[in-house]
């Protein structure tokens, strides 16, 4: 800052020796080599910040090289950001705290704050504070970059996805519409081609092998879609605590029955069985387990669990039907 003030206070070029003598921070006791390193470092930092540092002759009669800041080039128009824009800048600078980008991030923040722009995220409007508070995103930066690029170019993506860390990956194909944060977690929303339905995927559960597929411009986000509303509904309806009510047929779904508590006997569809209550725990895992028993287990409550189990069964049925059609086609050939 002292160097900037000194170089702005003169119309003519001033020499490095004069700067060394008059600018606070350059110790007169430092060696010539130490001063040279400090001065070169500071000049490079000013240029990195976009400050127009010029070099030229001190005077027509003195060929010594001097330095100054061009006032006309240094003056900038007022920077005005809306609250939403300032929040977006805050999120971006907090998100990209990687070693490769931290220098540019700090430089951008310095410029904006010097212009009097508040780039702090409004409390409650932005779900994150730093990458350290985002264990779900850390390690998924590359995935996020590929997804955003695909959204921008209008392409579908394929990726491996698992409902939880203990479960295997399955390949999914998605027409991505956008990426949304909710409660400190990141989700991509779009049309799931495998289920022919709108689906939400947590980024931390997506494997690193994300590949764009299909032509550019083939995917378009519907005009009336509310991405935040979709994610809020999914996250809000997918409880991670509490209990679910499930019906299991007599003599079936033994592992599921052992984890639950029998409420009453009940006959459904002419089959005898029992209603049990079971801790939800991991919502995805429970939905997957209930669906794996087919007609031997039925999700009754909550409604979100029942809907998810039905969606999984319908997706499985669609896959089976596609395999049968493919087999018929092969026989015909």
From TrEMBL:
What's the domain of life for this entry?
Answer: Bacteria
Keyword Cell wall biogenesis/degradation attributed: no
PROSITE patterns the UniProt entry points to: WYL
Sorted keywords for this record are: Proteasome
Q: Name one GO cellular component term.
A: proteasome complex
Question: Which residues belong to any copy of the WYL domain?
Answer: 142-206
Q: Name one Pfam family in it.
A: WCX
> Which part of the chain is the WCX domain?
242-315
- Keyword check for Disulfide bond, yes or no: no
Q: What is this protein called?
A: Proteasome accessory factor B PafB [Mycobacterium tuberculosis H37Rv]
Organism (species):
Mycolicibacterium parafortuitum
Query: Which lineage do the record's taxonomy fields give for this organism?
Result: Bacteria, Bacillati, Actinomycetota, Actinomycetes, Mycobacteriales
